[in-house]
Amino acid sequence: MTALFALATSLLWGLADFGGGLLTRRVPALTVVVVSQTIAVAVLGAVVVATGGWHEAGPGLWFAVAAGAVGPVAMLSFYKALALGPMGVVSPLGSLGVAVPVGVGLVLGERPGVLQFAGIAVAVLGILMAGGPEFRGAPVRRQAIVLTLLAAFGFGAVMALISQASTTVTGLFLALFVQRVTNVAVGGTALYVSVKRGAAALPQGGAGVVRAALPALAFVGLADVAANGTYAIAAQQGPVTVAAVLASLYPVVTALAARGVLKERLRGVQAAGAGIALLGTLLLATG
């Protein structure tokens, strides 16, 4: 079940990243983050009320608060790094965040078998290659590298924190709700400061463009929430070292979505990376 939920996480994260990437071509990235997470808060609030999740409140919610505070910082750092580029370097480096939950699992005493260790190494290599690394071209700006590594650490920290936020399904709904409320608080504050400094909060075309994009924004927000939920379940039911690597296959999903929807051609290194990542998945599942 760990593999199943972790792979579901990679599918959801991959589609959410693809949708978010498309939206940021029309809507400012910070607005995408705040609006999509606000929709997620509304839906999760209704779920928490319906399931009685309020009764699951406990000290573990502080992990959700921490995840909610780190998430927007990581996401905005990643968007900024992508803007500085080149994307072919930034994208695969962002996947290095998998080292955080894997490291936490090893510190906590998890010891994967030989096949699983091999699967982790093979899958991580495939994930990096699937991002389409650029081996030639203009040098990468130091700021882009720093921002990407900050984002990667943040993504990995969110994975590690959310897995500790609750041990029950109803408690998980509450934890995800608290995480998203914190996301909106942090992102909303950043948006307010940005507007005060004169930065545009709305795209060309005004609020009408945002309203037209609400279904897509809702999908991005809810897919991201669902991915956090399936990852938490995967990490609770099996080794975090395995769950984290399988959940981090999302760059493969994003690349395949771009190929299918936008007709973007996969570079040779990306196609090879997807195949290697799948091989690593098989090793992890059978190990």
Automatic annotation (TrEMBL):
The chain crosses the membrane at residues 28-49, 61-79, 114-132, 144-165, 171-193, 214-234, 240-262, 269-286. Keywords: Membrane, Transmembrane, Transmembrane helix. It comes from the Bacteria. SUPFAM superfamilies: Multidrug resistance efflux transporter EmrE. Residues 3-130, 144-285 form the EamA domain. Pfam families: EamA. Belongs to the EamA transporter family. This is EamA family transporter. It comes from Streptomyces crystallinus.
